[in-house]
Amino acid sequence: MNAASEKNFDVLIIGSGPAGATAALLLARAGFSVAIVEKTAFPRRKVCGEYLSATNLDLFRQLGIFDDFVRMAGPEVSRVGIFSGETKLIADMPRSARSQNYWGRALRREHLDTLLLNRAVEAGAILRQPCQVTKIIKTNDGLVSQIESRSGDPDEIQSRIVIAAHGSWEIGPLPTQAKRQTLKPSDLLGFKAHFQNSSLPANLMPMLVFPGGYGGMVTCDDGFASISCCIRNDMLQDLRGRYPDKKAGEVVHEHVIENCDGVRDALSGAQLSGEWLSAGPIRPGVRARHKNDIFIVGNAAGESHPIIAEGISMAIQSAWLLCEKLIEHQPDALTRSQLEKIADAYDRDWLRAFAPRIKAANVFAYLAMKRGSHNVLSKLMNTFPSILTVGAKLSGKVNRVVT
Q: Which of 102, 216, 296, 327 is disulfide-compatible with 301, CB 3.0–4.6 A?
């Protein structure tokens, strides 16, 4: 690649998590020249539930990573449950009648993200890492993105299209990035940790409900149990006052095992691997999918409460929804008018695919956080455990976006 072509691309993708790497792989294979700008060195851990539902497997076949994913990921998850106080309920995971695939699995983000990114680079995408985009300027020929390396050296990349796949928590100067805000008492903060030698049944993914928050557990690759959860900021501050000598993640751990017998039992003989990670605040909702001539995918486009464990699935599938429309055209033939039509079609398809999941997640999170609902829900689910299966269906576990 000559010096000029190193600065001129059909597409620039900001962020190489699941959404960004999926978009890069799809577009590079379709003949687009693609640059990826990623600010963090890989592999890296992320606050994430790490479960991918079976609705992703058709896309993984298209991406050519199905065999690697099945080989690397944890066991199939065929049951859902809820751990809340003394309550431990289990039900069947719903199965899609249309799908030839079986169950979802969990794969640690340090492995999933690296797998997808490596395949995108093998397909021809050019990676600038660790670097970050600091400004995007509209020109007559497209968009010019100013980038900086970790050393602070400035550079520019010109592209016809920019796709923002930087996630929803990243603070930055771009119009698609979040702005720094003062934490509110009701804000949800995310935490995650891995444990070895857990006694959690390998095929079970329980939802965790505890005062001030909710979470989930699942068995990932190499037998690691991944526990991720969200907790209100005011509850966390109260707990930190009670445990002044502990770090925030350790405080959350104590709170969860104190209020979820199922978690305490599953982790009674387990060992923490690494440290607790934290991120946030989490602000679920539907956001713009196109802003200032920039397409937006992943959590930056819209985010559900993590209680439904569909975050990675929505990120990957949103990238596919956009890219299937872009690759219907030759890169040189993509006029501004066509890009506007693609943006409108992408927006409609995104809302159709993901807005119901976000609404369902809002309801589930409200019920999980509302103290008065716990006893009623426990009694109801004890009588009708199949409600858990129905809830998993409403969360999108059988909704195939990619066919």
A: 296
Which residue ranges make up each domain of the chain?
Answer: 8-55+105-178+284-366
Residue 3: predicted pLDDT:
44
Which pLDDT value is given to residue 6?
A: 73
- Domain 8-55+105-178+284-366 CATH (choose: 1.50.10.10, 3.40.250.10, 3.50.50.60, 3.40.50.300): 3.50.50.60
Write 89-92 long-range contacts (CB < 8 A, 24+): 89/378, 89/381, 89/382, 89/385, 89/388, 90/204, 90/206, 90/385, 90/388, 91/385, 91/386, 91/387, 91/388, 91/389, 92/386, 92/389
Q: How far is it, in rounded angstroms, from Cα 208 to Cα 214? A: 5
Name the token pair of 226.
């991944």
Q: Taking residues 67-73, report their average pLDDT.
A: 96
219-232 pLDDT tens trace: 999 999 999 999 99
Q: Is the pTM of this model over 0.90?
A: yes
| Mean pLDDT along residues 166-195 | 89
